[in-house]
Design brief:
The chain has 121 residues and is an alpha+beta fold. The chain contains four helices and five strands; from the N terminus they run αβββααβαβ. It binds guanosine-5'-monophosphate.
């Protein structure tokens, strides 16, 4: 799938659509999900134009890959849900059709602040 510059997260990255920002650096932007599924529901997205995790793994630079993984940890610490600062959380990426991905810009969901429960419904 080619990257759609008009997807909602591309618009958030360009500052055309507002978000409740949690964290930003050279590689990632993190903000709260507009429709939270748990007490804490954050999203972490790479700044580069990647449709999903497979597309990212195949095309992103090593710096971008490290930046995203480190970014997840930084956000978890900031939200006090990391192993260091809290009681843990779930990081989840939906990938394409069977994964149930709705927004075609790679994103990790971070769920926390309470027990997340069953892994798959
Ligand atoms: P997916 O199903 O693609 O893994 O998840 C997309 C997520 O993006 C959903 O949890 C949805 O609530 C969230 N989302 C969709 N539009 C917006 C938006 O405009 N702002 C924010 N903050 N989240 C959004």
């Amino acid at each position: 799938m080619t990257y759609d510059d008009n997807n909602i997260f591309a618009k958030i990255l360009r500052g055309e659509v507002p978000c409740k920002k949690i964290y930003e650096d050279d590689y990632v932007l993190s903000f709260y999900d507009i429709n939270p599924q748990k007490k804490i529901h954050a999203l972490v997205i790479p700044k580069g134009k990647y449709v999903d995790l497979d597309n990212f793994s195949e095309n992103a630079s090593s710096e971008e890959i490290v930046g995203l993984i480190k970014g997840i940890n930084t956000v978890a610490k900031k939200l006090n849900i990391s192993v260091d600062t809290g009681k843990g959380y779930r990081a989840l990426a939906n990938i394409s059709e069977h994964g149930g991905q709705e927004v075609p810009h790679l994103h990790f969901h971070l769920f926390g602040g309470e027990r997340i429960g069953k892994m798959v419904e």
